[in-house]
Automatic annotation (TrEMBL):
PANTHER family: ABC TRANSPORTER, SUBSTRATE-BINDING LIPOPROTEIN, ALIPHATIC SULFONATES-BINDING PROTEIN-RELATED. This is Putative sulfonate/nitrate transport system substrate-binding protein. Keywords: Signal. Residues 1-22 form the signal peptide. Gene3D superfamilies: Periplasmic binding protein-like II. Pfam families: Phosphonate-bd. InterPro entries: UCP027386_ABC_sbc_TM0202.
């Protein structure tokens, strides 16, 4: 009987010791709800917000990072977006690629380039029988923003084709793509350089409009690049990247999958775009996917495209990239 009691006591002590040991060796579970960090992600209305439609609509978070609370927003004004970035307000933003360089130069490296959500989506269109980009020599062409990136891309292409865009083409500049639509639709002018999704809206309004050339394809041929020029760029705060690189990589993975989803679920994509308040009509946005060139490409696979793009812009007008070529530190490791 004493032997049984001793054995029972020994068993209980052993069990208690194991429980105590397990409790001591178990990693501490941190209450992340007390340490929530808000990550502000901003995309402008148009193609960048289209690329992010699934993430914005579904309020996508990164699995395993419950402490990181992503807040998505769509910015209607490109000027307001640039101002916010230069004030270092968003943690992650999708911006025109030249703005990525400007932000890096003006904020002393506050932001780094993580990748692109799409390559060039500007097209030469006309109701005239033009054959190629060079055919605009001697003509009036409606275009966006004198001295801004779309204009510089066009000027750079023309220069390499032997056409002086400053003296041999009469560019009539407007402030936004939507201003181009009525000018061409009413016949006031016949030829324009216009991006998606405005292009699809123009063709829906006036079916006689023909797509003459893709500026992105022209860029690929002339400058011998793989993807063309990076039109929209994901920038990330350097400090956020330094402290939470795995989180950023998870976010970029979600972005890539979200863009693939756009093309595989077009009807739902259109509804999502409408739900998050994009300006263009759902039907136009769905149709515009054909020429929008939305595709996530990480910086490791696109760094040479960026270097080439910034070099050409700097030669045309260094002010468009913040006054100088950005150094290698602009690119996410």
């Amino acid at each position: 009987m004493k032997i049984i009691k001793k054995s029972l006591m020994s068993l209980l002590l052993t069990t208690a010791s194991l429980v105590l040991l397990a409790a001591c060796s178990r990693p501490e579970v941190k209450d992340v709800s007390k340490d929530k960090v808000t990550i502000n992600v901003v995309a402008p209305d148009g193609l960048p917000a289209m690329a992010m439609a699934k993430l914005i609509k579904e309020n996508t978070q990164v699995d395993g990072y419950e402490s990181m609370d992503i807040k998505y927003s769509v910015e209607k004004s490109s000027d307001a977006l640039v101002t916010a970035v230069l004030k270092k307000e968003p943690d992650i933003a999708i911006v025109p690629s030249n703005v990525a360089a400007t932000a890096y130069n003006k904020t002393k490296g506050e932001y780094k380039i993580a990748g692109t959500t799409g390559t060039g989506s500007f097209y030469l269109v006309s109701t005239e029988e033009l054959k190629k980009l060079e055919d605009i020599k001697g003509k009036t062409v409606v275009a966006m923003g004198k001295g801004l990136t779309p204009d510089l891309i066009t000027q750079g292409l023309l220069k390499n084709m032997g056409v002086n865009g400053q003296t041999e083409v009469n560019f009539s500049y407007v402030n936004s793509p939507n201003e181009i639509i009525p000018i061409i639709a009413t016949g006031k002018e016949t030829t324009a350089i216009i991006p998606e999704p405005a292009l699809t809206g123009l063709i829906a309004t006036k079916p006689q409009v023909k797509v003459i050339a893709s500026l992105n394809e022209q860029w690929m041929k002339i400058f011998n690049t793989t993807f063309g020029y990076p039109q929209a760029t994901i920038i990330v705060k350097s400090e956020l990247l330094k402290e939470h690189k795995d989180f950023i990589e998870g976010f970029l993975s979600e972005t890539e999958e979200g863009i693939k989803w756009d093309y595989n679920n077009k009807e739902e994509f259109g509804q999502y775009c409408e739900d998050i308040g994009l300006s263009a009509k759902k039907e136009v946005l769905i149709k515009s996917l054909e020429r929008s060139n939305l595709k996530y490409t990480g910086i490791k696979d696109s760094v040479e495209e960026y270097k080439n793009y910034f070099k050409i812009l700097s030669e045309l007008d260094a002010k468009t990239i913040g006054g100088q070529m950005p150094d290698e530190e602009i690119y996410m490791d």
